[in-house]
């Protein structure tokens, strides 16, 4: 279906688990050359499983360790990619972190950690990818994994919501700057998605029921739902899609409290 993704070189940050792992495997199935970035070796088995899936499907894979919040690690990630595969076509800034804390108890360290990974990490990744695209005069693609919380406020997650709100305007600004060169920059904003990170909270019956209340489609999504949109956004089918956010959330951003027709 996404024939043009064959042999494309795609970097995915935070590819060791969750949505990033699904991105990696799906691009592999489209026969892309996938660079799986991961931060810690606790994902070794999962990464190896993804590499096997990618290679069996006819794609190629390269593992590159690195912390996206460290400038030198991201520069190294792009360098290793270009050294190994000769080019870069698609950059997916996916690595993210979340942990709830009431605002009045949040330390500067806690705030900074989330901003550094979710926002600054995507800034460095985008900047380095754009540099590479411009050097090669290439019409590359950047996709950031954002969140419904780039628009829905989220109590106890002020750092997270701020990072994702910033990511939205960052993407829109960069897109306005580089669309003229054919570089397409867009965000995907997932809602409630089951991954190993959220499995526990969504298997709690009370949390699950409360979450479903906020989803018009009455269904929690999975990583494949997000990966499908990433494949589309990376492909030529999306050649006229610039500077936009695709919400993949079962309608969560659409004021579900109004479902009953009151108000
Ligand atoms: C978070 C999830 C949360 C969802 C909906 C996402 O950005 O990563 O933990 O369930 O937003 O609130």
UniProtKB/TrEMBL annotation:
Belongs to the short-chain dehydrogenases/reductases (SDR) family. It catalyses: (S)-acetoin + NAD(+) = diacetyl + NADH + H(+). GO terms for molecular function: diacetyl reductase ((S)-acetoin forming) (NAD+) activity. Keywords: Oxidoreductase. It holds the Pfam family adh_short_C2. It is an enzyme of class 1 (oxidoreductase). Its EC number is 1.1.1.304. GO terms for biological process: bile acid metabolic process. Catalyzes the irreversible reduction of 2,3-butanediol to (S)-acetoin in the presence of NADH. This is 3-oxoacyl-[acyl-carrier-protein] reductase FabG.
């Amino acid at each position: 279906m996404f024939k043009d993704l064959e042999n494309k070189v795609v970097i995915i940050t935070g590819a060791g688990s969750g949505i990033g792992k699904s991105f990696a495997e799906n691009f592999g199935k489209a026969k892309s050359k996938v660079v799986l970035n991961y931060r810690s070796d606790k994902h070794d088995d999962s990464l190896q499983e993804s590499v096997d899936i990618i290679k069996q499907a006819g794609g190629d894979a390269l593992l590159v360790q690195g912390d996206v919040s460290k400038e030198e690690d991201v520069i190294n990630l792009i360098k290793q990619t270009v050294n190994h595969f000769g080019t870069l076509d698609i950059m997916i800034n996916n690595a993210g972190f979340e942990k709830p804390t009431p605002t009045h108890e949040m330390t500067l360290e806690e705030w900074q950690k989330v901003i550094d990974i979710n926002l600054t990490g995507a800034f460095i990744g985008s900047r380095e990818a754009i540099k590479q695209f411009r050097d090669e005069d290439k019409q590359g693609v950047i996709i950031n994994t954002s969140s419904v919380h780039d628009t829905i406020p989220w109590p106890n997650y002020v750092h997270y919501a701020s990072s994702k709100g910033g990511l939205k305007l960052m993407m829109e600004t960069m897109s306005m700057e580089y669309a003229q060169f054919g570089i397409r920059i867009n965000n995907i904003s997932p809602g409630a998605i089951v991954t190993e990170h959220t499995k526990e909270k969504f298997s709690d019956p009370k949390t699950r029921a409360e979450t479903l209340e906020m989803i018009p489609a009455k269904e929690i999504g999975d990583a494949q739902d997000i990966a499908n949109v990433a494949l589309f956004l990376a492909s030529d089918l999306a050649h006229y899609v610039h500077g936009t956010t695709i919400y993949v959330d079962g309608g969560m951003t659409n004021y579900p409290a109004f479902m009953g027709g009151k108000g």
